[in-house]
Amino acid sequence: MKLTAVHTHVFKENADLPLFIKDYIPSLEENTVLAVASKLVCLWQGLSVPYQNAAQKEALIKKESSAALKTPLAWLTIKAGMVMTNAGVDESNAQGKLLLLPKDCYRAAADLRARLQTVYGIKNLGVLITDSMILPLRAGVVAGAVGYAGFKGVRDLRGKPDIYGKKLAVTLVNAADSLASAAALCMGEANEQTPLCVIEQAPVTFSDEINPREISYPVQDDLYTPLFRAAGLISQGEKND
Question: Which of 192, 163, 196 is CA-nearest to residue 36?
Fold first, then answer.
């Protein structure tokens, strides 16, 4: 697998994102995944509000999340079935604004993919929208896939044998989040100005049909559910739809 981060100028709000990408990536080959920082998508869709004060930001975080819990560093929230910091509300690299994630990042990824397929004249193209995330009891940020299109985000290995012939009972490989974190390591988190990453030879299955539910794990079976329930982030009888 080959990952190439792409340096760009600062993307302006409401500018044409597909044309911006084409300016910096003149061509893309078939069977490529393009990682795009979520900030670009937020700006493309005009999802910003001027920053006023901490109280305004806190109110937005609560509005944008289905559940929110205050922690010493930030708000631990659930948005669109994902656990994330501050419901994706971000003021870094935002020039005095607060950027909000799209209501449907999968639709945004599909729309961007459709435009880019036309721009590049290719069929097998994956688009991956990345955003920073924090793992429990781990220092530093990684990245997750807040939306994707054009490839299967999860590989189901249940029933497959391990090297000794024992059948795997619960193993799912999260390809989307794995690719997002690998790409983010190349893209950076500060002033690198590399919000795009071309991923070649990614071990994924390309597909026009994507079901966002494939990557959504049942609350009743999730490893962290007891902690979330004890903290009051989710209710006792809560289930994903």
Answer: 196
Of 6, 55, 52, 60, nearest in space to 28 by CA: 6
Residues recorded for the chain = 241
Facing residues of 69 across strands? 76
CATH, domain 1-46+101-215, list 3.40.50.10320, 1.25.40.340, 3.30.420.180, 3.30.1330.100: 3.30.1330.100
> pTM here?
0.92
Q: Is residue 35 within 8 Å of residue 199, measured between CB atoms?
A: yes
- For the segment 73-123, what is each residue's pLDDT rounded down to a tens digit? 899 999 988 999 999 998 887 888 999 999 899 999 999 999 999 999 999
Exposed/middle/buried for residue 86 (C-beta within 10 Å: 0-12, 13-18, 19+): buried
**Tokens representing 89?**
């509300």
Please give the single-letter amino acid code of residue 33. V
> Where in the chain are the domains?
1-46+101-215, 48-100
